[in-house]
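Record 1 of the preview.
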Amino acid sequence: MRFCIFLAALLSTQLLIAQIKIPLRVNRDRVIVSADTGILIKNFTDGLAPFMVKGKDPFYDRLNRVGFIDSAGNVRIMPIYINCSPFAGGKALVMDTNRKVGMIDTTGRLIKPMQYDAITKCDNGSLFFAKDGKFQLYDSTATQKLTTHDYTGYAAPPITFTIGEDIHSLRRFQWYTLDFGTSVRFENFIGVQRDGRWGVINRSGKEVVPPKFKLINVFIGNAAVAHQGNFAGVIDTAGHWLIRPVYRNVVDDKGNYLFPPVYRNVKITPFQTVLVIKNKKIGVLSLKNKVLVPIKYDEIIQLSDSTFWVSRDKGRIEGVMRLNSETVTPMARPRTGLVNEGF
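->
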């Protein structure tokens, strides 16, 4: 039945979009769903909700069609795409059968054509558009290009995956919309790659540090870990070394681990301190390169601006240490939750 309705709607030039309506109901979880089990509906944002008309085999996504309805079930944007994101700030991403991504407004008008491989949003509202392996930065309206160069990469934190479904649920079709939430950690500065090297741009798209580093990690405040050869240190937003690159990288040029991969050679914490590894021992520095905790521990977890949990000698010495003191007060290792503040 669902195919007859939308096939007629798509082929008839006489039928107005406002005349097409999807019957809605509220399920036992008080969620609005379609009365037709072959139509899926996502949450409403900006007054519109994505809906999907499932194809004969929904796992083959090119057979599915998605569009948008209003709260009364009236189709406002016809189901001509194979996937989309929810609306955010009056804009949504849409994907065509060639898996190219574009951007539309709430009327369905194309703001950006269907020619991009990906569109990602930054913390500051600006947008990265990816096409043919290159990135360009646009303002939050997606109309003004900010960068003068094409880049081949930008700094991003390590990707982690979480599977919250059991193996049986994976046999059921699940509709995962395109992600148009903030996914790029870029407030004022970000490391970018051009011609095989890494530099820095600011939020206006200006290249403030030319490409000269082997790699630049995500900026935490006004500092970022940068790599030179097989060593890493910390730079400021002008590309000057705050901490010289004397800490050996986790991997060599061939991708071989130099010590267990759970460790990183240099890491800036939310406390604006820097955990470093040297000769397989861990310590803490300030962004002014002052030693806060000597580089002689096997594990360190920062608990506050001035308190650290430390362990050495295979756990024979472990406990809490305060800033400017090497006295260790015995204490068991903190539970999971604070571990990400150290290594």
